[in-house]
Write a structure and sequence with these properties.
- The protein has 22 helices and 31 strands.
- It is α/β, with parallel strands linked by helices and 718 residues long.
- It has six domains: 98 residues, GIY-YIG endonuclease (3-Layer(aba) Sandwich), CATH 3.40.1440; 48 residues; 187 residues, Rossmann fold (3-Layer(aba) Sandwich); 179 residues, P-loop containing nucleotide triphosphate hydrolases (Rossmann fold, 3-Layer(aba) Sandwich); 60 residues, no CATH class; 94 residues, Alpha-Beta Plaits.
- It has a seven-stranded parallel β-sheet, sandwiched between helices. The protein has a six-stranded mixed β-sheet with strand order 5-2-1-4-3-6.
- The structure holds adenosine-5'-diphosphate and zinc ion.
- The site of zinc ion (ZN) has 7 residues, from loops.
Length: 718
């Protein structure tokens, strides 16, 4: 037996350390090196881990060689993890206070490994067949037999090769990048200037200004330099329209990637980007593809909340993580939005990013008109028909008569989001969550009650479980609005888009295509209809019960409402036709609407919000880390969170403010109670140390108290 080799292995687990293993260099043929994937046993289970230290003999000796287990073998056929991936995982883990193993797990979902193994095995078998055919071809006497063998060999070879496409050179004049307008060209050269200083750029461009065109030009530059491009969008629905546009410019280099897709597809994308010049269009999970020679990262609609992953760890924000990834590759990064996040504006003020403005629309459409409708006043005047005001109905009729399209936003899906008993006044709640059950009438849930928090489905009887009284709906969800719209405008083609039916991505794509092609007149939906789509015939957008946008008791509610409203308003009147934006609300005096109507300077509004945050020391002027305690037992969650809160206050004294524990808006989900302890760190030199103390205190608390509930950390919660 030859001398054993010792390695350290990163496992896809929430593990603070990387265990040691030994191997026999002869059985694995060559010495293992960093990035190799190996099969090992840990805690009685087999995992595929990544070698992170290839020469760990010294460390292994310290632990005691006798205690070290041998690996089970090399994970055959799996591509090596590259060092930039490892460095990136460590960076993400450090920032988001999780383990590199948890990031590894997110980057290489378990099933994917099997998939790759299967593929490798298939490939191996095909190659064996080719070898056998080669022998036969050599031995064949008759010409026609030989021809048959050769043909078969050709076919198999084709299969093998198409799995891995050969690298194609990219010539600059291959790309049909649109001619930039003067304003766009100016913004473009300003961005290049920012890039040359190695800084991230923030592009604040009004909707319809052609930010996409600028991104495409920048992408073409990167590819021409032999670098690759990552183009991030917050949601996959958005990528569909973009995909065509990007493909028309880069037909051979585009791959689309998102977390909902099949493992085979993900593997294919990973395979492609290992070999070819690429532009990946994807959601946040595409940050974790095995990137190579990244030259440009684009973060489109950078303010969108969908960039944040809430669960499981890593609870990362795609925008911040994109900055980390770009940093590792020394790649250029551009973030764009019509309404940038306060975080990014703050970073511009602090000189970390540079702000580039694009204020001119490509089609020179004027700002759409805004009309705020006071639903309480209207109701008193008999001005409401169900959820629609007579004023809005008039506007919609006018647009339909001109064969223009209408989009209606309602934040609550379902038919009736809340049901209340006529007799006893109680709200019908989910038995496992502290949340109302909503009544559905579509998509296989017709006549059923659904809990939007835990997914529980219950038969709807129409009577109150407490007293047997009659249940009546409070408010209308998207399904009801769709029904009302169909009744009010019988000649119009009405469709709905929300997560109830957008769950099927084909259906969703179909609705978006139909609306874009003018086959739908009125589209009703949740905030998905406000996302960055480009519908040329859309000239009226309306928000029904806009109050639900303001209703969150959170220091960010106004920022979000403003961003959503601005984004939605940007959907209409994108061509020459002047658009109309209607908001129905019972709080017409709310400051958010003042900035929507332009009564308060719209761009000044963000600055005002920033100034407010500064006064209160809220993010982005500080860093918030939430400690979330979850437990099936209510008394225990209360006691534990209280004593953890005290422990944190003591440990972090002088380093951070500790607030709570408090109950979240919905404090029981799926039978589990939760409490939040909010810690607020000043952004100063002690932040790093403070984060470590926080993580260590939480860890120690769990161990010392033998706490069986779950405690998780959420850095920069949204
Ligand atoms: P934004 O993303 O800033 O809202 P888009 O990039 O979607 O704006 O552009 C709005 C519309 O204007 C699109 O239909 C786009 O094709 C068109 N457009 C913008 N710039 C150009 C250009 N330079 N040449 C041709 N069409 C353009
Ligand atoms: Zn529930």
């Amino acid at each position: 037996m030859s001398a054993l080799g010792f390695i350290q292995v990163l496992l896809p687990l929430r593990l603070k350390w990387e265990p040691f293993y030994s191997y026999d260099p002869e059985t694995v043929q060559s010495p293992l090196t960093v990035g190799d994937r190996v099969r090992v046993e840990f805690g009685g289970k087999e995992y595929v881990g990544v070698v992170t230290v290839e020469d760990a003999a010294e460390g292994a000796e310290r632990i005691g060689l006798g205690k070290i287990k041998p690996i089970r073998g090399k994970a055959e056929g799996l591509d090596k993890v590259n060092e930039t991936e490892l460095a990136f995982w460590r960076l993400v883990a450090e920032y988001y206070l999780c383990t590199p193993g948890e990031v590894f797990k997110a980057a290489y979902p378990a099933g994917k490994v099997e998939e790759e193994e299967v593929k490798a095995r298939i490939k191996e078998r095909l190659q064996e067949r080719i070898a056998r055919l080669d022998e036969k071809i050599a031995k064949a006497r008759r010409e026609d037999t030989r021809a048959r063998y050769i043909e078969e060999r050709e076919k198999i070879l084709h299969c093998v090769q198409n799995d891995k496409r050969s690298a194609k050179g990219v010539a600059l004049d291959d790309f049909k990048v649109p001619e930039l307008t003067e304003a766009q060209a100016k913004a473009y050269s300003e961005i290049k200037e920012v890039f040359s200083k190695g800084k991230p750029a923030l592009l604040r461009g009004v909707t319809g200004s052609g930010k996409t065109e600028i991104y495409l030009k920048l992408a073409a530059d990167a590819l021409a330099e032999g670098k690759n491009v990552l183009y991030l969008v917050p949601e996959i629905a958005l990528s569909r329209q973009l995909e065509e546009r990007i493909r028309s410019v880069f037909p051979d280099n585009l791959k689309v990637s998102h977390s909902g897709e099949s493992l085979a597809k993900r593997t294919e994308v990973a395979g492609f980007i290992r070999e070819s010049p690429y532009i990946v269009l994807g959601t946040r999970s595409s940050l974790f593809l095995p990137h190579r020679d990244l030259g440009l990262v684009i973060v489109d609609e950078e303010n969108d909340q969908s960039y944040k992953q809430d669960n499981p760890a890593p609870r990362y924000n795609g925008r911040e993580t994109a900055i980390m990834l770009a940093g590792i590759f020394k790649a250029d990064i551009i973030m764009g939005s019509a309404t940038p996040s306060l975080e990014s504006l703050y970073n511009c003020q602090a000189g970390r990013f540079s702000l580039i403005e694009l204020t001119e629309r490509y089609f020179h459409a004027a700002d759409s008109d805004v009309e705020i409708i006071d639903t309480i006043a209207e109701r008193k005047k008999n001005g409401m028909v169900g959820s629609f005001s007579r004023k809005l109905i008039g506007h919609i009729r006018e647009r339909l008569a001109k064969e223009e399209q209408v989009a209606i936003l309602r934040e609550r899906r379902s038919y009736a989001p809340v049901l209340q008993c006529e007799e006893c006044g109680s709200i019908l709640k989910c038995s496992r969550c502290d949340a109302a059950m909503s009544l559905h009438q579509k998509e296989g849930f017709a006549g059923k009650l659904v809990c939007h928090y835990c997914g529980r489905v219950k038969e709807y009887t129409g009577s109150c479980p407490e007293c047997g009284g009659k249940l009546i709906p409070l408010g209308a969800g998207t399904q009801k609005i769709e029904e009302e719209a169909a009744a009010l405008f019988p000649e119009a083609r009405v469709a709905r888009l929300d997560s109830d039916n957008a769950g099927s991505s084909r259906h969703e794509a179909e609705i978006i295509r139909k609306f874009a092609d003018g086959e739908i007149d009125i589209l009703v939906g949740t905030r998905i209809v406000a996302k960055g789509f480009d519908f040329s015939g859309l000239s009226l957008v309306a928000v029904i019960s806009s109050d639900s946008l303001l209703g969150q008791r959170d220091y960010r509610a106004d920022e979000r409402a403003l961003q959503l409203l601005e984004q939605f308003r940007g959907r209409c009147g994108r061509r020459s036709e002047k658009g109309l934006f209607v908001v129905q609300t019972s709080q017409p005096g709310h400051p958010v609407y003042k900035s929507v109507t332009g009564e308060i300077d719209r761009r000044g509004a963000s600055e005002t919000l920033l100034a407010e945050r500064k006064v209160f020391g809220y993010p982005p002027y500080s860093r918030v880390i939430n400690v979330i305690v979850r437990d099936r037992d209510k008394t225990r969650v209360e006691a534990m969170s209280r004593s953890l809160g005290e422990a944190l206050a003591t440990a972090l004294g002088g380093l951070a403010r500790v607030i709570g524990p408090y109950s979240p808006a919905v404090d029981k989900v799926g039978g589990e109670y939760s409490r939040i302890i909010r810690t607020i760190f000043p952004k100063d030199a002690r932040l790093r140390a403070g984060k470590k103390i926080l993580a260590d205190t939480v860890e120690r608390f769990g161990v010392e108290r033998r706490y069986t509930g779950r405690v998780s950390l959420d850095v920069d919660p949204v």
